[in-house]
Please model this.
Amino acid sequence: MAVGPTHYLVLAAVLFALGAAGVVLRRNAIIVLMSIELMLNAVNLTFLTFSRFPLVVRRPADLGPMMMQGHAAVFFVIAVAAAEAAVGLAIVIAVFRSRGSVNVDEFDSLRN
Amino acid sequence: MLEVNWLHLIPLLPLLGAVFCGLAGRFVPKAWVYAVALGAVLVSFLVGFTAWRQIAGGEGGPLAVHELVYTWFSVGRLTVDLGLSLDRLSGSLVLIVTGVGFLIHLYSVGYIDEDPGYWRYFAYLNLFIAAMLLLVLGDNLVAMFVGWEGVGLCSYLLIGFWYEDDAKAYAGRKAFIVNRIGDVGFLLGIIVLFSLSGSVSFAQLSTLQLTPFVAGTAAVLLFVGATGKSAQLPLYIWLPDAMAGPTPVSALIHAATMVTAGVYMIARLSFLFVQAPGILLLVAVVGGLTALWAALIATSQQDIKKVLAYSTVSQLGYMFMGVGVGAFFAGTEHLITHAFFKACLFLGSGAVIHGLHGEQDMRRMGGLKRHMPHTARTFAIATVAITGVLPLSGFWSKDEVLGQALRTSAFSNLAMLPPQFKGTPVLGWFATHGPTFVGPLLWAVGSFTALLTAFYMWRCYYLTFEGEYRGPDSVHPHESPWLMTVPLWILAFLSIVALVIALPAQLAGRLHLEGSTWEHFTEGLFRPARGGPPREMLPEAATYAIALAIALAGWLLARRYFARGAEGFAKADAVVARFPRLHRALENKLYVDELYDRVLVRPLWAFAKALWRLADSWIIDGLVNGAGQAAFALGAAARKFQNGNVQRYAAVTAVGIAALVYVFLVRG
Model:
């Protein structure tokens, strides 16, 4: 059985769904951040999939640079995810210091 | 017709006086207010007199003085000029309005001096004079209507002058509302006349041949207006209540001038009314019935002003009878003489009320002749004038009206049934004969009313001035200051000399006064009624003899019961005891107010209340409150989404994106 783009994409969709479910359902802010990482990496997987299996190839000469575009995007996402995780964890620690809890369902200051 | 450019001064001066008194009167010394208010009317009188001299000059002189002040508005076919026209009718009325008005202003200085609202009073009074002059002088229906509404407004303001008193404020509102009913008729009449003839000016209208339908419709609507303003059946009920106002106001507005506006209007529109003989018949019958009805009520009133008020209603009935039988000169002649003696009577009653510190009930008067000789004498002269015991002005003018009613042929062209009924037994008579019997019938009714008039006026005089004083000892009756007695004497004098305008033609000819009679003076001014020359009935001398006998009978009757102290009162009580229900009904003004209350006022209140409950509280308020509540509910629902839980936001976002993906990518 040849492994085609469908397999990668289904795996990415499953990972994204798991991440989304974690973001929406889990109470612990750290788990929520981890779920966000999961979603970002699911997205990264789709980028790499389409980089590996491009949909349209107009000229073979373009193929090399085109294949690198997906990788570039993934590097950006990894960098942003790292920054996001750093800021997110800092916020979680600050919230824990002031509120004594990291359960997101206990915070509704945004309502005000 | 003489065109001049100073006629507008006549109504303008009192208007400026009103503006001054109303705006500045509060802050300037009292004397200034009096000087401006009286001066404006006096100068207005002098201007009016100058104009009147021009047209009264005799043969060859102009018949009218006219001024086109400006074109008020011009819309489509409708052009309304603010034009003033002073002819022999309106000119004479200008002299009465400003002349009697000035005397009453003078009297008011003595009457209202102690009231803190004197400046307001004089502002209203001047405004009234201005509006009344516009009503009289206006040369078209619209200008007349403006004056008509203006006098109604002033009447309302002055009846409710002491507005702190609920009853008086109510009387003012009542007058205003009842007048409004009539005014709607007037306005509709103007609209009918304009829409069907295309003009509102008297000069143009009088040249038009109107169809009987147009003339009849317009005439009946205008007559409705006249019944409101001139207190005729069925709209007379406001006038007795209007006595709540200061007494000089009753004299000026509710006796001498404003209430006669309806008579003036019909006389001014004689060309219209003669084209609608059926409506003339209605005018005459309403006038006759009102005269009788009000005189009946007047016999049993105890309030001196109420007696005079009903007397005014009754005399106005005579005037309407006069114009109704086509004798426009007789109706207006009675208008003029009535203005003098009724103003005198009202001012006399005001002097009595003033001298007794507000007492109006004749049961607590009596013997005032000793304390206020001037008032008593002038009141007696005016009483003689109105009752006709001696042939003073009222006798001649009233009997001119009655004589004209007896001999009228204004209705002889009318058929009561269409001609196809001719030949049938009973109905045939009605088909061949017009309602010509109405004239003599009105004469009989009017003569009986004259008996009642003599009775109630002498009763009023005797109860007030003769016999012993029956009031409380704490009140010391005193004569009024000269400011009040001088107008009384002038008006009493005028009540006597006004007889020269009211003399019958034959007698005037014998006395070489034919040039001064009103009939001669206004010749050609009024359109003659259709139906030919007057019919021969009783000779003139006979009708005058009958009238004199009737007046004497009424006087003797009143003397028998009210001039002999306790003995007479006992007799009167005995008569009353024999007809207790009739007396009670008359004392209660024949329950007309109660009837209106049941039939009109309360159903209207109930209807208004129902509208308030249903339409206003429920539908209108429901819509308004409903809109607010809907916004609230929407907000409450929307607020649930913003609960501050970021996870819920994320979930909703995820579901939304999933839905979008499904719709646009999967299905689309």
